[in-house]
C-alpha cells in the first residue's frame, strides 16, 4: 500500500511542481518575436506563423508556403509547416499516425493501428504497410515556396544505449531558384547499432528529393523517394515469464529466433505531375492595363514508378519455431519478393469557380498500371519466378470545396482489363457548417463502396518456410461514417461502420478467406480542455466486431495528455506533461517473421495496464528541444506488459531531441 501511495504522490508531484513556477512566468503578452504564445499552433494551425517570419538582423519578411498533392497527385492542398511546440516530443513516428497501436516493442519494427479505421495503407504494398510511419510516400511530400532558403536539422538520442544505441538524424533543406521554381531534399535515418547480441538491430532510412514549378499556364510537381527498413527478427520471447524471472535488459532476453534472422524492406518511388492550363484573360477591376488569367480547363498527366522489395534471411533455417517442411533450401533462408509498378494517368479537369454559386470541379481520367511481380523460385527450377499484369481503368471526380456552408467530394474508379477487371471504388465526403450560438457545428459524413482483388502475394506465395497458391475471390466493402465537431469547446465525436465480404485474415501459417460477412463498428470521441497554463487532451475509442475469429481489436482504448505550459523571460516557451495510453484486454495479433504479417491468435489476452510517457518540450526562438521519459512507470502496475503476443512494449527509456530551423 505504501508503494502505491508513493507512486501516486510521484505522479501528482510531476503536475504540482511546475505550478509553483507559473508565478515566475510573465502573465502579460507572451511574445515569441512577432506572435503571441496563446496562439501557438496545434495540428490545425501548425506553422501558420511561418508564412511571414521577420529576420531580426534585417527585418525582411520571410515568406514560406507549403502544400501536398492529393487526388491522384493532381491537386495541391495547403498544409502547415511543422514548427509547433505541441506534441514535438512524439519521437516514435507510429504515434504520430495513431494514438493506439500494436507493435513489436522496439522502434522501427512492424506495427499496426488498434483502430481498424486507421489501417488503410498509403503505399498499398503487401509487406510495406507495417512500416509506413517510418518512411515517406508521394502523398506525404511537402512542396515549398520560400523567399529565402530554409534549413531544418533534427537530432535525437536514446540516453541509455550509448555507444551502441539508437540515434536519429534528419536534415532538411529547400530553396527557390526563381519565383516559380523550388527544389528541396530531406534525409532521415534512425539506427540501432549492433551491440552484444547481433540479432538486435533495426534501421530506418528515407531520402526524399522534390521540385515544383508554378507558372501561370504550366505547373510541374515531382518527387523521388527511397525508403529502407532493416529489422532483426527475434520471434518474440521464448517465455513470457522471463519478464519477471530475469533481471537484465530486455534486448538480452532469450528469444525464439537466434539465427541472425533479418527482414529487409526497400521502396523506391518517382512521382510526377505536370499540367497545362487553358483559360482566358480579363481586365483587372482594380488595376489599369493589368490582365488576370482565369483557368478554365487543365490537361494533366501523372506518372508514378514504384518498386517494392521484401527479403527474409536466416543463417540457418529454423524448424522449431517455423514448420518443419523447407521448400527451398535446408542450408540458409533467402526469401525474395519484389513488385515493380508503372502508372500513367491522363486527366481533363475543369476547376471550380469560387465566385459562382453552383460551380464545382469536374475531373475525368483514364490510365493504366503495369505491374510485374518477382518471387523466390523453387528447388527444381529458376532462381526467381515472375509474372506481368497490365491494368487499365477510367474514372471521374466531382467536388465543391469553396462553399461557405456545405462542401462535397465524390470520386470513382473502375478497372476494365486483366487482373483487376471488374474492380471499382466509389467514395465521397460531405461537410456542412451549422451556425450554433456564437460558434459553429461542423458535420462531416463519408461513404465508400468498393471491390478489390486480393494482393498477388496473398494468392501466390513461395518461401523457404511457407508455400501456397489459393484462388481467393474479390473482397467487397461498404463503409459509412460521420462526425460532428464544435471547435470553440474543443469537442469532436464520430462513428464508423464497415461491412466486408470475403475478408482475408491470417492464421499462424496461411491466409484464410472468411466464410461470412465481417462487420466492424467504432465510436470515437475527443474532448480537450484549454486553460491559460494547462491543456488536457482526451480521446476514447469503442469498437465491436461481429466475427472475432477473423479480426480482434480492443473493445475500448483511452488516451490522455496533460500539459502544463508557460514562458520564461518572454523568450523560452515550455510544456511539461504526461501522455497515458490504456486499452481493454483482447487477443492482440501475433507476428510471423517469415511471412512478414500479423495473424489472429487465441493464446493470450493482452491489455488493461497504462503506459505513461513523461516529457518536457521547449522552444527558444527557432530552436525546439524535448526530453521524454518513455514508459517511466514500467513495473508499477504489472510485469506482464506486452504489445503483441510474446513482444513486450518498450522498456523505460530517456530520449532527447532537438530541431534547429535556419533562414538564409
Which key features would you list for this structure?
664 residues, Maltoporin, Chain A, four-stranded antiparallel beta sheet, 38 strands, 5% helix
Structure description:
Helix content is 5%, strand content 53%. With 664 residues, it is mainly beta. The protein has a single domain (2-663), classed as Maltoporin, Chain A, CATH 2.40.170. The protein has a 22-stranded antiparallel beta barrel. Strands 3, 4, 5 and 8 form a 4-stranded antiparallel sheet that branches. The longest helix has 21 residues, at 2-22. The radius of gyration is 26 Å and the shape is globular. Residues 1-58 and 194-199 have low confidence and may be disordered.
Offer a concise description of the structure.
The protein is mostly beta strands and 664 residues long. It has one domain (2-663): Maltoporin, Chain A, CATH 2.40.170. The strands form eight sheets. It has a 22-stranded antiparallel beta barrel. Strands 3, 4, 5 and 8 form a four-stranded antiparallel β-sheet that branches. A two-stranded antiparallel ribbon has the order 1-2.
CATH topology: Maltoporin, Chain A
**Main β-sheet: number of strands, strand sense, barrel status?**
22 strands, antiparallel, barrel
Going by CATH, the homologous superfamily would be TonB-dependent receptor, beta-barrel domain
Roughly what percent helix? under 10%
- Basic shape: globular
Count of folded domains: 1
The average pLDDT score comes to: 84
Total helical elements: 4
End-to-end C-alpha gap: 59 Å
Fraction in beta strands: over 45%
Model regions low in confidence, pLDDT < 50 over at least 5 residues: 1-58, 194-199
Radius of gyration: 26 Å
Report the CATH architecture.
Answer: Beta Barrel
Amino acid at each position: 500500500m505504501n508503494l502505491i501511495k508513493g507512486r501516486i504522490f510521484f505522479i501528482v508531484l510531476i503536475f504540482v511542481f511546475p505550478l509553483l513556477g507559473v508565478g515566475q512566468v510573465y502573465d502579460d503578452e507572451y511574445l515569441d518575436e512577432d506572435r503571441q504564445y496563446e496562439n501557438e499552433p496545434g495540428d490545425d494551425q501548425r506553422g501558420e506563423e511561418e508564412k511571414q517570419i521577420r529576420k531580426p538582423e534585417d527585418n525582411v519578411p520571410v515568406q514560406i508556403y507549403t502544400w501536398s498533392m492529393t487526388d491522384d497527385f493532381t491537386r495541391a492542398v495547403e498544409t502547415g509547416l511543422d514548427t509547433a511546440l505541441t506534441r514535438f516530443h512524439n519521437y516514435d513516428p507510429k504515434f504520430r499516425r495513431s494514438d493506439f497501436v500494436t507493435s513489436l516493442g522496439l522502434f522501427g519494427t512492424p506495427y499496426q493501428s488498434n483502430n481498424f479505421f486507421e489501417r488503410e495503407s498509403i503505399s498499398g504494398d503487401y509487406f510495406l504497410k507495417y512500416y509506413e510511419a517510418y518512411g515517406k510516400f508521394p502523398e506525404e511530400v511537402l512542396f515549398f515556396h520560400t523567399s529565402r532558403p530554409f534549413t531544418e536539422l533534427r537530432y535525437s538520442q536514446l540516453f541509455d544505449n550509448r555507444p551502441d544505441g539508437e540515434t536519429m538524424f534528419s536534415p532538411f533543406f529547400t530553396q527557390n531558384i526563381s519565383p516559380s521554381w523550388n527544389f528541396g531534399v530531406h534525409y532521415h535515418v534512425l539506427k540501432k547499432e549492433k551491440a552484444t547480441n547481433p540479432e538486435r538491430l533495426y534501421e530506418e532510412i528515407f531520402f526524399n528529393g522534390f521540385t515544383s514549378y508554378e507558372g501561370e499556364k504550366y505547373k510541374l510537381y515531382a518527387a523521388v523517394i527511397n525508403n529502407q527498413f532493416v529489422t532483426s527478427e527475434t520471434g518474440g520471447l521464448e517465455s513470457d515469464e522471463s519478464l519477471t524471472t530475469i533481471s537484465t535488459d530486455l534486448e538480452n532476453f532469450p528469444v525464439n529466433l537466434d539465427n541472425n534472422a533479418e527482414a529487409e524492406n526497400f521502396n523506391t518511388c518517382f512521382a510526377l505531375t505536370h499540367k497545362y492550363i487553358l483559360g482566358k484573360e480579363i481586365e483587372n477591376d482594380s488595376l489599369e492595363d493589368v490582365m488576370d488569367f482565369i483557368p478554365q480547363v487543365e490537361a494533366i498527366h501523372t506518372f508514378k514508378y514504384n518498386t517494392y522489395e521484401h527479403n527474409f534471411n536466416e543463417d540457418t533455417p529454423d524448424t522449431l519455431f517455423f514448420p518443419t517442411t523447407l521448400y527451398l533450401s535446408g542450408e540458409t533462408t533467402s526469401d525474395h519478393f519484389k513488385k515493380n509498378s508503372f502508372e500513367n494517368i491522363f486527366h481533363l479537369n475543369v476547376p471550380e469557380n469560387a465566385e459562382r454559386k453552383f460551380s464545382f470541379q469536374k475531373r475525368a481520367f483514364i490510365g493504366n498500371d503495369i505491374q510485374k511481380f518477382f518471387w523466390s523460385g523453387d528447388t527444381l527450377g529458376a532462381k526467381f519466378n515472375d509474372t506481368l499484369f497490365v491494368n487499365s481503368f477510367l474514372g471521374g471526380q466531382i467536388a465543391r470545396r469553396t462553399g461557405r456552408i456545405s462542401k462535397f467530394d465524390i470520386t470513382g474508379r473502375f478497372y476494365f482489363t486483366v487482373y483487376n477487371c471488374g474492380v471499382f471504388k466509389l467514395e465521397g465526403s460531405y461537410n456542412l457548417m451549422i451556425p450554433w450560438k456564437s460558434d459553429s457545428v461542423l458535420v462531416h459524413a463519408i461513404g465508400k463502396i468498393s471491390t478489390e482483388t486480393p494482393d498477388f502475394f496473398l494468392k501466390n506465395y513461395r518461401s523457404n518456410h511457407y508455400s501456397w497458391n489459393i484462388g481467393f475471390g474479390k473482397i467487397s466493402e461498404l463503409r459509412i461514417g460521420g462526425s460532428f465537431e464544435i471547435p470553440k469547446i474543443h469537442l469532436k465525436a464520430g462513428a464508423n461502420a464497415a461491412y466486408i465480404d470475403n475478408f482475408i485474415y491470417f492464421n499462424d501459417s496461411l491466409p484464410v478467406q472468411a466464410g461470412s460477412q465481417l462487420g466492424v463498428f467504432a465510436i470515437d470521441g475527443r474532448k480537450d480542455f484549454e486553460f491559460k497554463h494547462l491543456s488536457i487532451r482526451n480521446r476514447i475509442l469503442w469498437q465491436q466486431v461481429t466475427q472475432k475469429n477473423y479480426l480482434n481489436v480492443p473493445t475500448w482504448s483511452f488516451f490522455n495528455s496533460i500539459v502544463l505550459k508557460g514562458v520564461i523571460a518572454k523568450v523560452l516557451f515550455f510544456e511539461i506533461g504526461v501522455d497515458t495510453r490504456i486499452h481493454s484486454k483482447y487477443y492482440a495479433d501475433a507476428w510471423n517473421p517469415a511471412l512478414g504479417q500479423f495473424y489472429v491468435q487465441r493464446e493470450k489476452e493482452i491489455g488493461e495496464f497504462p503506459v505513461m510517457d513523461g516529457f518536457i518540450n521547449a522552444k527558444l526562438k527557432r530552436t525546439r528541444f524535448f526530453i521524454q521519459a518513455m514508459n517511466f512507470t514500467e513495473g508499477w502496475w504489472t510485469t506482464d506488459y506486452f504489445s503483441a503476443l510474446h513482444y513486450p512494449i518498450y522498456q523505460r527509456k530517456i530520449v532527447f531531441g532537438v530541431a534547429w530551423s535556419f533562414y538564409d
